[in-house]
Amino acid sequence: MKKTSRILGRSPAAFELARAIVKAAPTEASVLLVGESGTGKEIVARAIHHRSGRRKGPFVAINCGAITATLAESELFGHEKGSFTGASATTAGCFEQAHNGTLFLDEITEMPLSMQVQLLRVLESGQYHRVGGSELLKTNVRIIAATNRDPKEAAQAGCFRSDLLYRLAVFPIWIPSLRERKADIGYFAQRFVDEINEQEKTRKKLSDTAVEVLEAHDWPGNIRELKNVITRAHILADEIIEIAPIAPMFRPNTLEARQGILKIPVGTSLSTAQRAVIMATLDYYAGDKRRTALALGISPKTLYNRLERFRSLNDASETV
User: Fold this and answer.
1) Which domain holds residue 7?
2) Which of 86, 91, 123, 171 is the most buried (most CB within 10 A)?
3) Has residue 105 been placed in a domain?
4) Given pLDDT bands bounded at 50, 70 and 90, which one contains residue 43?
5) According to the per-residue pLDDT averaged within each range, which of 59-63, 252-256, 303-307 is highest?
């Protein structure tokens, strides 16, 4: 637990994430990681693999959103020599490469629907064919999938099969954004400085005000953005690393509530906006559910049902 916690941070949220990893790792259950881009989903997937009984087997990662529909089948299942133009040799796919290990399917909700059907069939039967092949191959892999979208929302939108969602989300884990765990910002910043110092053979240090400036930023790019900021500042610094106020590079994927007013950017999904309104109202009334329900114009029972649904992914490791 301690080693995993050091990787993920030192905040209560990081501890809960580490606890979920420790609980999930020894099992053979499929895991679905849900979190914004840059939150470290592959790091979590690798931590699960290295704590599992498959740790001596391969860990193979594929970004489902980076492959075209025409190449997806070959990427996953491999192909035989001559099966299509350019197939100059028999090539193993991800399932074959990950045999007896872990297959990490990143951005799973971006996988073409036609491939989702084939993936589901393989997960259920453990068997598949290479493209252009007749030999029936068997696979023994553990699946860890990840997405930066709400998987239920993707299923409702028709771009992600609900039966595949249920097959993958045996043990869902929610990965909090960096703005939800600001206690970890200083820790990660120092870790990145130490890593760069070791690589570059330098001894640069963060200034006394650096962490305060970093904690004031919303980090829409999460841990990945923080690492980039630290890297740039390290390059520019002589001995002391100063951090200037950070201007947002992109519109933050966050809904901001201040003084009883909630700002919702245009283009925010209805489900995200609904959750933000409910949680901001609950926070405004200091957790008083009766007053919150009255202000929202819904019954207390409806409010309790909505809150329970919102917690379903966050608390999945407790209910599995």
Assistant:
1) 2-176
2) 171
3) yes
4) very high
5) 59-63
